[in-house]
Amino acid sequence: MSPVDGRGSLTRSIVLLTSAVAAVAVLLTGLFAWRTIRTNAEAQERDQLSRQAEVLARTPPLASWMLERQQRIAGPEDIKLAIVRPSGEIEGPAAGVVGDANREALLSGDSVSTTARLDGDDVLVEGAPTFTGGGLVLTQPMSAVDQATDRMRGSLVLPLILGLTGAALAGALLSRRLARPLVTAARTAHRLSEGARGVTVPAEGPAEVAELAGALNTLDTALTHSENRQRDFLLSVSHEIRTPLTTARGYAEALADEVITGEEVPEAGRILRTEIERLEHFVGDLLALARLEADDFRLDIVEVDLDALVAETATAWSARCARHEVDFRVERPERPVLITTDGFRVRQLIDGLAENALRVTPAGSPVVLALRADGSGALLEVRDGGPGLTDDDIEVAFVRGALTDRYRGVRPVGSGLGLAIAHRLAGRLGGTITARGGAPEGGAWFTVRLPPYPRAPYTPLTDS
Question: How far is 121 from 99, CA to CA, in rounded Å?
Fold first, then answer.
């Protein structure tokens, strides 16, 4: 079953959403327009009636003719007329709407605009003063406003329908613009999960969708790089394991076939033990690196005196370096340097760097372990008198197997995991580790800075 079974498509969701938003907008617009159309229609009819009243007020002969006609021919006229004489006398079919207030206003030279009832119907009333000192009043039934309202409301329906249709079409176009690159990105992600590499997603569509495409392309590059590194690492591991296994197997077969007998047996046993120890050391490095990269890596945090720790470490490494005729030196403040950390892991870190230094340092040259207080934290250094590191070496110093592959057959090399483990350990302890060449002793120079308290997640030490 697809992971999206049971879910609506983005295209349909966008179309429905835009249509719903458009429908709400159309509904609100329609309700508002529906209410205002009546007011606008009345204002429009009143404006027309007012202009007619002003025209008649300025043309007394036309007003008199209209009044005579309405008085002579009684009928259901839409517009009815009333004339207010300068004497205050009111004539015409619309005289019933001219009350005392309207008459006084017209005689005073003011216009009149109101609503009244005439012959049982609501009518619009508009009046204008005449230049002779009187006034003229026109009335129009409210039914004219109702008709105008119906016409305006009828003309509103089509634009609202067109607006709703346009919104649905816009939603469909928008959904296609958004969904197409998203579908492409989803397909690419599925291909990546199935193992395909070298696939790219076109950076098209809105900025966020283009950013998603860029992220998938970056992921593809990162996966390719990571898998290549893993492949190279596995090849390196297989090479490291094959050599001692081949040696051990050869001697074991020789012993089994009694090719090696007598006084040669102890030497063969010594060689077998050496190769097995080499394998054990390599497997231990692999396990240590795996643990360091696990989320549940444990740190036992206590207060540690690094000066005492370095003194203890120096005792062990002084004897080991002496067996290789390497001059081991220690530089420490000989006073407590207290930080809160995991002392066992710090010792593991120092041992890894010291072993790396001893491997490349020729007889008669020094290996130096130094400790200094660094603010409220501490600074550890391991320097050697070996061949040192080039700028290119420094760039890949902590990449597992990089220096081993580079110098295999040129100088003594180990499993290729020691510096990678040291780098990961320093990070787990909340510190940093840097490498450089040009040490005072002539070789490599590794510096570890440890904070007064680890910033990385840790498991507090308990009594259980």
Answer: 16
Q: How far apart are the first and last CA of the chain?
A: 48
DSSP state of 162: H
pLDDT band (50, 70, 90) for residue 460: very low
Task: Give the Å distances, CA to CA, from 321 to 316, 348, 386.
Answer: 9, 17, 14
Instruction: Specify the pLDDT at position 463.
Output: 39
Please tell me the pTM assigned to this model: 0.48
Q: Which residues share a beta bridge with 339?
A: 304
User: Is 429:301 a contact under the CB 8 Å cutoff?
Assistant: no
| Identity of the highest mean pLDDT range in 35-39, 132-136, 181-185, 252-256 | 132-136
Mean pLDDT calculated for residue range 34-40: 79
How many Cβ atoms are within 10 Å of 89's Cβ, its own excluded? Answer: 11
Token pair 């007619």 is found at 52
26 contacts 160 by C-beta, under 8 angstroms: yes
| Residue type present at position 451 | P
Task: Write the burial class of residue 220 (CB in 10 Å: 0-12 exposed, 13-18 middle, 19+ buried).
Answer: buried
Q: State pLDDT tens for residues 305-324.
A: 999 999 999 988 898 899 89
Residue 28, burial from CB neighbour count under 10 angstroms (0-12, 13-18, 19+): exposed
Check if the beta carbon of residue 98 is closer than 8 Å to that of residue 90: yes
The residue that leads in pLDDT, 65 or 152, is: 65
- What is the torsional sign of CA 230, 231, 234, 239? negative
**Tokens at residue 20, please?**
């719903």
Rounded to an integer, the average pLDDT of 433-457 is 87
- Tell which phi-psi region holds residue 202, choosing left (phi > 0), alpha (psi between -120 and 50) or beta: beta
Using alpha carbons only, give the angle 156, 160, 161 rounded to the nearest 5 degrees: 120
What value does the mean pLDDT take over residues 450-460?
A: 66
Q: Which residue has the tokens 């009684």?
A: 74
